[in-house]
Specification:
mainly alpha; 17 helices; about 70% helix
Length: about 425
């Protein structure tokens, strides 16, 4: 790829980028105010059914100054009346929210917690652009990844609510950025003691925000052991072990508590109820794939009515996904020897998919947001192939139009949802 666009392409690309990025950020801030609290519908947006449970966790910490103990699961009768089924979650997001609640009170504290989630989401978007540029130093790849991430309705929606998702995605993006910034095995940018400490703290913070970020221990281990093998330096492997061990040690008290209280380190049975083991038939598997596709593009439930419009949107989402996979395959085939950072992003995506499938084998929870720990990888693998394709035809800046259309496509679902 060329390292920069030229002439009119540069100007128009930057103009499109800045205009649409501003609109995306404004839309995200608007969602903080207009999405209703709880599972009600307003302005065609449905509130999150478990946001009250997340906020109850915040309130409990603020009022009692101690961690609550979960007694039942989300599958128990009356769970959405009591809203006490998120207490198994790691505490970092809720501790920050409790401070906001204590300072601003209940109603203002709710919107402060939402705004904190929104800020985490916006910072994640910018980190995704930065990580894409570190992987392939091309401004259009950066712009595409930024716009795709900024307009993602699922990411924007969950980043406008009280939940630990947005903070976990921010930490995941920070870990990815740290690794791709350091470069491959032969890079001279070694991890200094300060950067090593930062990475260990990020791993610990991730595990104290959401247990799904456990995959990044494997990612960091792969990074350091591949580097150690390439450089033939045992000290590099020791450094990686130190970072991983420190991060695990810092997060371990919470997971020891889980084992003592819930007889499970991750406490998934408390979060999702008893194992379901539903992916045993072809029909169940196809249903799982359809719901994953649907929820990846559109996060709310009030549009799932089996209507023709929803089915058409699902089909369009499938076509977009297949087209992106084909473009990615062509892109990787032409590279022949992928850059180390591309391989690293590929590992993040593969591990996230494996973790997602494992969750759905034991507890059927086909929600596309569970794939978003790999959002930097998803955005890059959507961006780079399309930019390469358009540049081969001498119209690189038009790729940004594809980014905007792709990212705005889920808004079509809103035409087939309840207005109120």
């Amino acid at each position: 790829m060329h390292t920069a666009a030229t002439g009119t392409g540069r100007f128009s690309g930057r103009a499109v980028f800045r205009s649409f990025l501003f609109l995306a950020i404004a839309f995200r801030l608007l969602l903080v105010a207009i999405v209703p609290f709880g599972q009600t519908v307003r302005y065609r947006f449905e509130g999150l059914n478990d946001e009250p449970a997340h906020f109850n966790y915040v309130k409990y910490l603020a009022l009692h100054h101690s961690f609550p103990v979960q007694k039942g699961t989300v599958k128990d009768p009356g769970a959405f009346t009591r809203n006490d089924f998120e207490y198994y979650q790691p505490p970092l997001y809720y501790a920050i929210g409790a401070v906001l609640y204590a300072v601003f009170g209940m109603r203002t504290g709710l919107y402060c917690c939402r705004l904190f989630s929104c800020v985490c989401g916006i910072l994640t978007v910018f980190l995704i652009g930065a990580a894409a540029y570190k992987t392939v130093p091309h401004p259009l790849v950066k712009y595409y990844a930024l716009l795709f991430a900024a307009f993602s309705l699922t990411h924007a929606y969950f980043s406008a609510l009280v939940s630990n998702d947005a903070l976990s995605w921010l930490i995941a993006a920070m870990i990815v950025y740290e690794l791709v910034s350091a470069g491959g095995p032969h890079s001279r940018r070694n991890f200094s003691p300060g950067r090593s400490t930062c990475l260990a703290l990020l791993l610990a913070a991730g595990m104290l925000t959401k247990s799904s970020l456990a995959i990044f221990f494997i990612v960091v281990a792969a990074y350091f052991f591949m580097s150690a093998f390439s450089l033939r330096k045992v000290s590099t492997a020791v450094q990686g072990c130190g970072i991983i061990g420190s991060g695990a040690l810092l997060a371990s008290p919470w997971y020891i508590r889980n084992a003592m209280l819930y007889h499970s380190v991750m406490a998934l049975n408390m979060g999702f109820g008893p194992p379901s083991h539903n992916l045993t038939t072809m029909r169940a598997l196809l249903g799982f794939l359809e719901k994953t596709l649907h929820y990846f593009w559109f996060p709310m439930q009030h549009g799932i009515s089996g209507s023709t419009g929803v089915r058409v949107c699902n089909a369009l989402g499938g076509v977009i996904l297949v087209a992106q996979v084909i473009a990615l395959a062509c892109y990787l085939f032409r590279i022949k020897r992928p850059l180390f950072n591309i391989l690293l992003l590929g590992l993040v995506l593969i591990l996230t998919i494996i973790a997602y499938i494992s969750l759905n084998v034991s507890h059927l929870e086909p929600e596309g947001r569970f794939l978003l720990p790999a959002f930097p990888a998803i955005a890059f693998f959507c961006a780079a192939p399309v930019v390469r394709l358009f540049e081969r035809r001498g119209a690189g800046s038009r790729a940004l139009g594809v980014a905007v259309v792709t990212a705005l496509f889920p808004c079509l679902y809103l035409l087939f949802t309840k207005a109120a």
